[in-house]
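Hello again, I could really use a second opinion on something today. I've dropped the whole record in just underneath, so have a look.
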Amino acid sequence: MNWQEIITLLEQGEGQSVEFEKQIPSTEDLARDVVAFANSGGGKIVLGIDDKNKHLIGIDIDPLEFKNMIKEIITNHCTPQISYEVEVIDRNPKKIAIINILEGDEKPYKTDDICYIRDVSESRPAKEEEEKLITNPWGGKGLNKRQLRALLHIQEHGNITNREYREAFGVSHKTAHIELTMLADKKIVKSEGLGRSTRYVLPPN
């Protein structure tokens, strides 16, 4: 991420997918925001900027130590594991950090056994019905991310074929066949048709 992109985020202001922090927040606050973004489409936590006054404050960090600290917090305080990226930008003599949280496939994500979601510019506990809405019904079944995303594709489009699986995830025909067959063997999906016309659908409730 370059400085101009940071300026653009600052101009847009804090919101559904961006959180600004002047300094490094507490472990509890950071874990809460990370979980909320993972449950709510992903987002960025930008550290070292006062978004209210549009000031670059900077944070005093060693990039490697900072990345290790973030890894420890996310690994030990967020469940299931969340995908993220950390970037440290030098703006001499100051540094800012961006934690990019990717949307998760195994919702709900929690910290201290509480599910948080993003609500405009706030990370708050999800209501019971909100948590049910975001819960992935296939979590805990030993599926990889491609398979979980394929199931979401089936939910949206009605079915998926081997070719669509290959094109969506950049895998070979053999890998697509193995992973789709695994879903069928677990009775998570059922196959219809034969040969190249085989498609995979969700079984009736």
Remarks:
- The radius of gyration is 20 Å.
- DSSP finds seven helices and twelve strands in the chain.
